[in-house]
Amino acid sequence: MNILLTNDDGIDSNGLTLLAETLRKEHTVWISAPDTERSASSHGITIYKSVVFTAVDEQTFTCSGTPADCILFALKGAVPVVPDVVISGINKGNNIGNDIVYSGTVAAARQGAFFGIPSIAVSAAGYFPPFPFVEAAEFILNHLNDLISLWNKEIILNINIPKEPNGSWEAASLSLLSYGNTLHVQESDIEFDSVTYLLQGELERIGSAHDESDFTKLQKGIITISPVSIYPSCHEESMQKLDEYLVTRSAGK
Fold first, then answer.
1. What pLDDT, in 10s, does the model give residues 200-216?
2. What are the C-alpha distances in Å from 72 to residues 46, 52, 115?
3. What is the pLDDT of residues 154-203, one digit of tens each?
4. Which residue of 61, 91, 226, 239 lies most exposed, with the fewest beta carbons within 10 A?
5. Distance set, CA 86 to CA 68, 73, 81, 89, 115 (Å)
6. For residue 86, what pLDDT is reported?
7. Which of 62-87 are b and which e, b meaning 16 or more Cβ less than 10 Å from the residue's Cβ?
8. Which CATH class name applies to 2-175+209-240?
9. Is 120 a residue whose pLDDT tops 90?
10. 122: which strand partners?
């Protein structure tokens, strides 16, 4: 089948290269990836300036935009193929819990799903190398047909590979993570009244890390698969409360 790959770590990422090499054993692989690292770019797209696609070879292109741009522009014709599946990754590090709000990796997969194409985000767990890229690539190759059969038009499959997989893979709900982010002053310019900051932080609190969560299962060596909705939704309890308030307010007039 035709597979379109992207990532948010950039065209030179080892995870992307290894995934492409592995999938080419059985499939035709096309790549549309950012020309430089675009980690944590979420689902931003470029609308007020041009995006440049540059051919590396006949089936590999770099994109000057975001990860979502890579897929959006590719599927609009910048890459001369309509893929059977979009795969984003292999990301350097987890994409679990509320990390997926910021993740360019997940956003690129979501963009593929917006076009009605089976779309998968895959990440290699850990915060420091070595990352389990080989295990992640082999898992995708060996289970690609299974994963596509589990997909539907309202979701993406968000997959995380633990550092030391125990051979099992399971559905997992999203955990709630909290990072102790702090601002570090790198430079201060009194003349221009400007300060340069660097945001740093480490995982310091886990909420909702129950037995079925992605965080907990990864700690046990389980490959996690989370079917994540691609559409925003309203909070049902708050919707009901709002409706009741409006009815009461209207009756009081």
1. 767 665 766 678 999 99
2. 10, 13, 9
3. 999 999 999 999 999 999 999 988 776 666 676 776 666 788 877 776 76
4. 239
5. 12, 13, 12, 10, 10
6. 98
7. bbbbbbbbbbbbbbeebbeeebebbb
8. alpha beta
9. yes
10. 159
Residue tagged 């931003």 (tokens): 44
Write down the pLDDT at residue 71.
98
pLDDT at 148: 97
User: What is the rounded CA–CA span in Å between residue 154 and residue 161?
Assistant: 23
Distances (CA, A) of 62 to 69, 87, 109: 11, 16, 17
Crossing angle of helices 14-23 and 133-150, rounded to 10°? 60
Measured CA to CA, the distance from residue 106 to residue 95 in angstroms comes to 8
Q: For 77, left (φ over 0), alpha (ψ -120 to 50), or beta?
A: left
Q: What is the pLDDT of residues 23-68, one digit of tens each?
A: 999 999 999 999 999 998 999 999 999 999 999 999 999 999 999 9
Model-level pTM greater than 0.85? yes
Residue 161, amino acid: I
* Amino acid type, 125: A
